[in-house]
Amino acid sequence: MTTLFDDPRPIEALGDLYANIWQVCYVTSDLDRGIEVMSARLGIENFTEVPTEGATFAKDGEPKQWDVRVAMGARGGPIVELIEPIAGEIDFYTRFIPEHDSHVGFHHLAVLVPLGDEPWESVERLLGEQGMGFAYTITIPDRARLAYVDTTAELGHYLELCQLQPADTEFFSGLIEGSA
Asked: Options 1.10.287.3510, 3.30.70.1290, 3.10.180.10, 3.50.50.60; which CATH number does 14-177 get?
């Protein structure tokens, strides 16, 4: 049986990223209210707030202050992430928060990149060939290396590239297995 976190497809063209989607992310101005909306309307009842302590955040390679609350949930499939931007470099989140009553706005699709420097650098080169790059990066020691690619002009959302260490894939697999 294959799982969401089996070895990601090698990325030879940017379209290969879609084969590796593992998460859909929404942003909200109130994480607790966003969780209520996703639970009541969509039946995603197992949201777990995850820590961001120790993460380093950069915009265009320059370290920036960044403060967010993050929760993850699932309902038998890809992870659903909710982010509440709080302070610092957060405009790229807040512009997606709707002003109407839903309290959540679509922000990005997250895709797995095979572990290691070579696959990461290869994707970065492919992006560069298309005039794109890593707009924002996040490193969480011993957990994840993440990069946001600004595809809002073409697609209306960001793509988040993710290299997840085994502890994180085990955590996310547990969320999926424990969901409805």
From this structure: 3.10.180.10
